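Researcher: Re-running this chain for the archive, since the previous output was lost when a drive failed. Same request as before.
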Amino acid sequence: AIFPKCPAFARLPFQLIDDFLEDKNISQAKEIWPLLEGLAEKLTTETLFPKGKFIMLKTCNFLLKKLSKSCDTEFCGRVLLFLAAIYPISEKSAANIAGRINTGNVTLFDSKDVFNANVKSESPVESSAQEDGEASDELHITYQLYEGFWKLQTYFASEFKALDQSSPSWTDFVANAKAVVDLLKSSSLAENDARAAASSHDDKDGGSNVYQGTKYLTSSQLFALQLRDPQLRQQVAIQLLIFTHYLKVKSLPTIASVEQRVNFLRDIVTLHNDAKGIIEAIPGKMSADLVAVVHRIL
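Model: Regenerated C-alpha cells:
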C-alpha cells in the first residue's frame, strides 16, 4: 500500500529483485523464478511498472546471459515468456525495428571429403538392399544437394549477401533456394512420418513430448532422415518466408531499373509461394494454424 502513496519508492521492488538474483547461481534462480512469475500481475500495475521496467529488463537480460541456450533451454524460454507477458505489445525495446540480422549465427556443415567418407562407411546391408532394388524409391543424396541445403543458412545470416539483385550472389541465392524447395518437394514425408507430424501437435498436452532443438545437427549421416522430418522442413520453410518478405521490404525500393524490379519480385513471390506450399503439405493442426498466421502477417 505504500507504493501508490509514494511513487519515489516504485523502483524499490524491482531493485530488490535485481539485487536478490544477482548473486544467485542457475539452480537457485530456477527455484526462485516461479515466485517472480506469480508477482507479474502486481509488478505491472500502472504505478509500479513505468518506474521499474528498465530494471526488470536489465535483470532478465543479465539472467539470460548466464544461462546456456543448449542446456537451459526451458528456463531461457520461461524468462523470455515472462518478458513478453509483462511488457505491452507497443514496447519497442524488444522489437527489431532496424531489421538487423544476426550475422554471428554461423551454421557449419561437413566438407566434401567428410561427406564422401560417410557415404563409403554406409552399412553393407543398406548397400545390398539398394542393389537389389528394395530401396529404389530412396532419394539419392549428393554432396551438391547436401551443401546447397545447409548453405541456405549462410544467406539467412548475412545482411547484404542476397540484397543486390544484379550481383552473382543474388543469382546464387535464388538458384540455391529453388534447389532446396525442389529437394523438400521431391522428398515427401513417408506415411508414418506424416502420422507422427499430425499426432505430435494434436494431443491433449499440446505436443510437450516433442523435442525442440536449439541448433541444427548438420552431419551428412543424418541428412536423409532430416529431409523426412516435418519439424525441420517446417522451420526451413518459415525461414524462407521471413527472409523473402524481408528482401521484398528492404531491397525492392532500392532497385532503380523497372526490369530488375519485375524480375526480383517474380523470384521473391515464387519462393514465397513455394515455402507456403511446403508448410501446407505438412499434416497436423499446428501447420494449419501456422499457415493462417502466415497469410495474415506476411
